[in-house]
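Design request, tokens follow.
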């Protein structure tokens, strides 16, 4: 007896069978569309595009928390993006009365965030010192550089992330060209070798680079995400030595500071943890703003220590906990991870006006130290989302 004969004897069976087959086909079709629609297979024409054919553009880097002007979706085939970073050794007051000799890419801690698209090339000119056209003014108390520096790009592919190919002495420059094969936000940092690696990193020698997918960001359904603003938060742990009388120790230059700082680093407990180089950088010095209805992309890096970001009063609507956009983002998170030597990316669309704090939800890091930023949001309050339906009154 075949299924047709079975159906003739019992028409209900045939209907059930056909419905079952339709459901099975539709179910697998939906699953296939879902998978194909989310993971974008690389386009061989783009992957095999040659560097010699790439349009050459120069990107003017800016100091964080801001990003250089950029397209969210790549226009045309891969480009070669020229950037320049000057390394500055400088003394900076990271908290009232607390001074650290920093190594700062482009005179900024964290260093600037270059923005490229996946499969673009980055052509970096790295300068140990400052020369004409640097685009920034040095601190009054900066002195000429005394140490060797370089850069290791976590976004790059090749030995030491380019660290061996970029080692330069004070007064030297070098050019490194590499291709951005992975999308995401990636740490870069100075890595001269041995204990110099953590020393240069915890004195500010780090930043992050954004590699956008060519088609732009996608949410968990595969639909495009377009942000109205993007902020780069670079979290920094410091290990400042003290004098015998308990006051913070101050040194003469970047080399002179190292011995005592390494002893504090050996204890693994930071004396200071801040966003963007110094206490109050993103709560007082720089005012971050947004409007109700705007989507904000928050990019967070920590080159040496874990962090656990949280947006008070909002959420990570979509979060890439490792900051890598070819992984489907998590939805509606309250707090998430930044691993040492890593990043996280999150988007939030603001629905209410007010003051929002984006902070490390290890609250000691946020409030005893200063790992926090404020975002001032303007717009109309929505009572449906929140309302004080009874004001404070005396207990009866
Ligand atoms: Cu260095």
């Amino acid at each position: 007896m075949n299924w047709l004969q079975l159906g003739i004897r019992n028409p209900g069976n045939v209907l059930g069978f056909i419905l079952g087959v339709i459901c099975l086909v539709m179910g697998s079709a939906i699953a296939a569309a879902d998978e194909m629609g989310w993971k974008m297979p690389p386009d061989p024409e783009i992957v095999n595009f040659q560097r010699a054919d790439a349009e050459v553009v120069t990107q003017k880097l800016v100091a964080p928390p801001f990003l250089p002007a950029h397209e969210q979706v790549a226009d045309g085939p891969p480009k070669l993006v020229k950037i320049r970073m000057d390394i500055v050794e400088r003394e900076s007051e990271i908290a009232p009365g607390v001074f650290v000799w920093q190594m700062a890419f482009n005179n900024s801690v964290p260093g600037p965030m270059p923005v490229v698209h996946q499969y673009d090339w980055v052509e970096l000119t790295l300068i140990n010192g400052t020369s004409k056209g640097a685009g920034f003014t040095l601190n009054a108390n900066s002195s000429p550089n005394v140490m060797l520096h370089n850069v290791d790009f976590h976004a790059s592919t090749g030995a030491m992330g380019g660290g061996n190919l970029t080692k330069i002495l004070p007064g030297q420059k070098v050019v490194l060209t590499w291709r951005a094969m992975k999308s995401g936000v990636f740490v870069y940092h100075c890595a001269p070798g041995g204990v110099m690696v953590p020393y240069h990193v915890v004195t500010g020698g780090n930043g992050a680079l954004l590699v956008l997918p060519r088609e732009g960001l996608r949410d968990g359904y595969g639909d495009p995400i377009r942000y109205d603003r993007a902020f780069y938060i670079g979290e920094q742990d410091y290990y400042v030595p003290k004098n015998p009388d308990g006051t913070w120790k101050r040194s003469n230059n970047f080399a002179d500071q190292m011995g005592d700082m390494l002893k504090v680093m050996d204890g693994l407990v930071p004396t200071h943890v801040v966003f963007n180089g110094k206490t109050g950088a993103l709560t007082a010095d720089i005012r971050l703003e947004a409007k109700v209805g705007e989507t904000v992309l928050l990019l967070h890096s920590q080159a040496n220590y874990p962090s656990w970001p949280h947006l008070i009063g909002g959420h990570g609507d979509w979060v890439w906990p490792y900051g890598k956009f070819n992984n489907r983002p998590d939805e509606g998170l309250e707090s998430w991870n930044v691993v040492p030597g890593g990043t996280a990316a999150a988007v939030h669309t603001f629905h209410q006006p007010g003051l929002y704090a984006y902070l490390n939800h290890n609250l000691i890091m946020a409030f005893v130290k200063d790992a926090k930023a404020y975002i001032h949001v303007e717009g109309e309050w929505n009572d449906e989302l929140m309302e004080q339906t009874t004001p404070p009154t005396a207990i009866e």
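Comment from the thread starter after seeing the answer: thanks! Residues 103, 149, 190, 192, 200, 205 surround copper (II) ion (CB under 6 Å).
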